[in-house]
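Dear Dr. V.,

Thank you for agreeing to look over these. As mentioned in my earlier message, I'm a first-year student in the group and I'm still getting used to reading structure tokens, so any feedback on how I've presented them would be very welcome. I ran two proteins. I've put each sequence directly above its structure. The first is here:
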Amino acid sequence: MANPLMQENVWLQKQRFEEAEAYFYAVQAGTAQPGAIQGGQGGASPQVQNRLDELEKENKDLKKVTNDLKALVQKLESRVVALEGGKGKGGAPASKAAANDDDDDFDLFGDDDEEDQKMKEERKAKMIADYTAKKSKKPALIAKSSVVLDIKPWDDETDMKEMERLVRSIQKDGLVWGAAKLQEVAYGLKKLTIICIVEDEKIGVEDLREEIEQFEDLVQSVDIAAFNKI
């Protein structure tokens, strides 16, 4: 005949498991030494003891894994801080070597900027020097004037071609003769109108007029009909 208790849903070992659980946490808290469970039953069953050993081993393994992960995270944070120039999210200070490397990199870039600025200044100075030299070699602007002279003869029998030849015979540095033509004055009398270009610093118009009047056998007077700066 079967045992009636086998038909009941009763946990007969509950007290032992509760004692084993209490003993496990006591060992973890440091208030008990590993060994036999103290209690009214006088000792733990081999199954319970094995389970406690397994739990203790698993707990040690978990602690080791946790510590390894924590160390790895700290190393990663240190590398991130070093790469970001000491601005890591976790606020962990960068190593002294990483800080020195960052300073060296910054100094290198600073040197490049200084060299670029120096090269720009040298190019600018060279351009200014070239422009100044080119400007100094450029010939100065020469002031010139266009003068129209009216040269009158004594009478209508004067040889006007000879008069023009004598006038053009006056050759000076800074004097260039231009076109000439005869214009009637009155009663068949004509005058010689001639253009000349003079450099103001070299030729005086009044001096030129007086020099033409020295051909007194043919020339009665010389008038300045027009005077324009070029």
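The second protein is here, in the same arrangement:
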Amino acid sequence: MRVQRGFTLIELMIVVMVIAILAAIAIPNYLEQSKKGRRADAVRAVGEYQLEMERWRAECYTYAEVNTCKDTDGDGTVETGERGYPSAPTSSFYSIPSGGLTASETAYSITLQPSGKQAGDRCGNLVGNNTNKQKPAWSVASCNQ
């Protein structure tokens, strides 16, 4: 009598089902972790922008973009900002909507809106301004942790 080698159809179907169940659990978790990582990048970018805006205000006494700063040291000469006016962060996962970047003499605000692969993110928009200097805030409060 000859010994049969190989797998039965039932065994193959069980293996395929196990792989499908694992994929159904793993893929959404992976995608959520990817979005979470991109959210962290956005928070870092807005935080850096906030630091640059505060540096600009310290040098020029205004958040607004001006060609020259005021006489900051009282010697009668007008200085320009050392590193220039801060540029807005750029990303392929977030965009700045119309009106999402404003600056005046006493205030600034930046809003990043999810786009591309990040579009439809559950945390919504990210807002940084001179009133929430500690950390930029998401539209959805549960994301601000």
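From my reading of the second output: The chain has a mean pLDDT of 86. The chain has one domain: 9-143. Does that match how you would interpret it?

Kind regards,
E.
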